[in-house]
Amino acid sequence: MVAMTRSLDVSRDLYATAQRFIAGGVSSDARRTAGVPLYVDRAAGSRLWDVDGNVYLDYVLGQGPALLGHCPPAVVEAVTAQVSRGIVYSAQHAAEARVAERLCAMVPSAERVRFNTVGSEAAHAAWRLARGHTGRPKILKFEGHYHGWLDPVLYSVHPSLEAAGPADAPLAVPGTAGQPPAADLVVAPWNDLEALARLMDDEVAAVVMEPVLCNTGAIEPDPGYLRAVRELCDRNGSLLIFDEIITGFRLAPGGAQEYLGVHPDLSIFGKAMAGGMQVSALAGRADVMDTISTGKVAHAGTFNSQPVGIAAAEATLRILDEQRQEVYGTLYARGRALMEGLREAAAKAGVPLLVDGPGPVFQTYFTEEESVRNYRDFARTDRARMALLHAALLERGVNMVPRGLWFLSTAHTEGDVAATVEVFADALRTLPLG
Fold this sequence. Notes:
By secondary structure, the chain is an alpha/beta fold. The strands form three sheets. The chain has a seven-stranded mixed β-sheet, sandwiched between helices. It has a four-stranded mixed β-sheet with strand order 1-2-3-13. It has a three-stranded antiparallel β-sheet with strand order 11-12-14. Helix 2 (73-83) runs antiparallel to helix 9 (307-322) and helix 9 (307-322) packs across helix 10 (324-349). The protein is globular, with a radius of gyration of 21 Å. The chain contains 13 helices and 14 strands.
């Protein structure tokens, strides 16, 4: 762990230069910060080293991809070997067929696959495919769910409650200036089956969701909710799409659909499927995916199935598939131990803290409530205090997602968990009362 006061001289100089040449000084809005952003020099296992020599126990893991820890040897070896054979072909190669075959064997609903580079592309492809396959114009998404930053999807992710409209019929609130008005988009509240049924009609091509909501807390569906949504989609003739960019391969070898026992028509994957390399995938029922096969729905991309990323995906999926008991036993054991340790630390400090989620990913909330079931519950938690906690933890050498989300990897040890709980207890003592 690092000392309580970090040296950030090199980081500060780099940030000053970056602000001259990079818009906002950072390359993604997710990295905006009130102070100096984290400038990483290298990463290995469960740790990051910044350019000033500070060491961090890392629970961000690249926003989730480093499921096997940073730089897992098998992935590094596969990527290194492929780079010497070719970086981009814009042509077919044997590894993509092997990866597609394994992915279809691992994921319950996957019969066909198309590869992309990042999650936003795969989400965009899924929405287009749903409309093209069904001939219907509307997509129904849920308030608080994130499906990438492209114009058609960046609505009602974290809207202000004043702008969001009625709780049982949320408005489509754009996420940025420069976005056109929402076209054929319906927004529903999460975990409210009655409201969903009321908002569905025969123009809805697809219902799209994060099956475990990880971009707004770590909110699992209520018991029976997903199965009821599945049945509602079937009755309505709408497709069900799971955005498994975060949950895919993190919660089980077959993703949240295996973990929860409900299978969608289409799924999108990314992040953990390639151990940190940039690969995403659209997968689903053969008859739906064959709307792409026939050319009715277009899907393209120069870097689709680029060989370096596919080499990483092949190495990662092989480990997740063939060592599943060891991998997922470790992830759940470490995650749940950390969750319990954080709860105990908060209880001893007299701090109202809710720790919730499956384990391989979970959320900490400052709230007196016993549960958080949807975006509006999340919005009412003390997010300003969570930002203070994030800063206090970072100062002490623990890196979590600023909104309170924690990712676990197989590289995190029992010692890492114990050290994190100790630092967490110390950080809580620095926070203002209330």
